[in-house]
Automatic annotation (TrEMBL):
The organism of origin for this protein: hydrothermal vent metagenome
Protein name: EfeO-type cupredoxin-like domain-containing protein
Gene Ontology terms for molecular function: metal ion binding
Keyword Repeat annotated: no
Coiled coil: none
SUPFAM superfamilies in UniProt: Cupredoxins
Alphabetically ordered keywords of this record: Metal-binding
UniProt-listed InterPro entries: Cu_oxidase_CS, Cupredoxin
Signal sequence, start to end: none
UniProt cross-references to Gene3D superfamilies, sorted A to Z: Cupredoxins - blue copper proteins
Length: 138
């Protein structure tokens, strides 16, 4: 029985990972929408929140609940090549190459705790392009 449950969990995690970029169709599960844009300033690179409580904040901490469906939209606002990575969840978005380009990652946080998001292209993480991803238990 326990083994069966573990298999179901592993399969649902795999299916979550393989649907990155797709739109979840579930009606009864809350979807947390988060939008970030990219910014460059001299040697600094960062994410800036768009809308809601993170609007205008640089590298905002993102607060979500475990097992919610989380959809993060990244908008290229500076014309440099970027992506968003969630290394603790094995997720990296497509790259956005041109100003105005968007990419979306959708995932289900399967563990709680303090994690990070970042852009590791062209040394951007070292130039400041990283923030906190805080996942609370339900
Ligand atoms: Cu970047």
């Amino acid at each position: 029985m326990k083994f069966k449950i573990a298999v179901v969990i592993v399969l649902s995690v795999i299916s979550t990972l393989t649907t990155v970029g797709a739109t979840p169709s579930s009606k009864d599960r809350p979807i947390t929408h988060i939008t970030l844009r990219t910014e460059s300033d001299g040697d600094h690179r960062h994410f800036v929140g768009v809308g809601g409580t993170i609007d205008g904040k640089v590298n905002p901490d993102l607060f979500v609940k475990a097992w919610d469906v989380v959809e993060i939209t990244l908008i290229n606002n500076d014309g440099l090549k970027h992506h968003i990575g969630l290394p603790d969840f094995f997720i990296t978005s497509h790259e956005v190459m041109e100003k105005g380009a968007k990419t979306v990652v959708t995932f289900v946080p399967f563990k709680s705790g303090g994690f990070t998001y970042n852009c590791i292209l062209d040394n951007h993480k070292e130039m400041g392009m990283k923030g906190g991803l805080i996942i609370r238990n339900r």
